[in-house]
Structure formats: C-alpha cells, structure tokens
C-alpha cells in the first residue's frame, strides 16, 4: 500500500511539521536537548532506548514540545510524556485496542485507542513494545488505517478493563 508522499507543512514560526497547514500545535522553539536538560544517565538511557525503537520503525520526525517529545511520520504516532526518577511515561496510537497488563491505561478517542505505558528500565522496551510501535508507525503514523476504511469499534478483550472516554469519544464499559 502506497504511503502518502506529500510533504508535511512546516509552521513558519516554529518549524513544527504538520500533515496540513494551520493545525493546532504547541508553537515554540522546543528541543530534545531542552527536554533532556537536567536528566540523569538512567533517564537518558530510557529515552535513548525508546528513540532506538522508534528509529527501527522507519524514517520519522521529532516534534518536541514544552513538556513532551512526540514522534511522527504523517501524524504523531508515539510520544514521551514524562521522564523522571519514577520512570518514563509514553503513549502510542492504534486503530485497535491491545490486551496487555503492561499498559497503564487505554483511552478511546473516536475510533482510535491511545495506549499508555510506564517504563522503569531500558530493558522493558523489548520486542513486544517494538512490535506495538511498528504497528502504530504503520497504521496510525503513516495513516494506513484511513485507507482501509474505518476500523471496527472492537470490544475490549475479557479482563482487559475499559477504555476511558476522552475528547468526546464514546464511553466503553468494562469487560
């Protein structure tokens, strides 16, 4: 399946890469170096391991903001939301809900699922997480799920709990 090859629009004020002109974003001069400033070697190792997994997915852009660093192809498919002594919180987006006890939370946003993961050690970024990121990169980041038609609203797997409703999406009941 061909990937949309149109160039991303760049904000003339901050350089942010966006799929189309005028989309809302955190307009400012943010950097990965600024995000990592004051972090210790363990925290930097966590961040580095996550970036290595993202790099294994294919070409990507980095979209640093004041409080997070997002990774995008056509759209932002994964993000480091917090990095500190308590570990690193990341999320990634898929058009289906995963069933894993490793996930802290799953938010349903329309027909998509935002999967949240907290990692304490670099080795927790293993093959399973790498597979989830590759799928997120392909399906959401490259927007392939849109070309397949609307994904079905999958029921949560038994024992997986409920996807939380956010941003006006439909509420899911627990299984």
Give the structure's gist in a few sentences.
It is built from four helices and nine strands; from the N terminus they run ββααββββββααβ. The protein has helices spanning 32-36, 41-55, 127-141, 144-147, and strands spanning 9-10, 17-18, 61-64, 69-72, 76-84, 87-94, 103-109, 112-119, 164-165. The model is unreliable at 150-162 and 164-175 (pLDDT under 50).
What does this structure look like?
This protein is an alpha+beta fold and 175 residues long. The protein has a domain at 42-154. It is built from four helices and nine strands; from the N terminus they run E-E-H-H-E-E-E-E-E-E-H-H-E. It has helices at residues 32-36, 41-55, 127-141, 144-147; strands at residues 9-10, 17-18, 61-64, 69-72, 76-84, 87-94, 103-109, 112-119, 164-165. The strands form two sheets. The chain has a seven-stranded mixed beta sheet.
**Largest beta-sheet details:** 7 strands, mixed
**Strand residue percentage:** 25-35%
Please give the share of residues in helix: 10-25%
Q: Name the shape in a single word.
A: globular
Q: So how many helices?
A: 4
Widest beta sheet: strand line-up: 3-4-5-6-8-7-9
Low-confidence stretches: 150-162, 164-175
Mean pLDDT over the residues: 80
Instruction: State the end-to-end distance.
Output: 35 Å
Structural class: alpha+beta
Order of helices and strands: EEHHEEEEEEHHE
How many DSSP-defined strands? 9
Question: Nearest-angstrom radius of gyration?
Answer: 16 Å
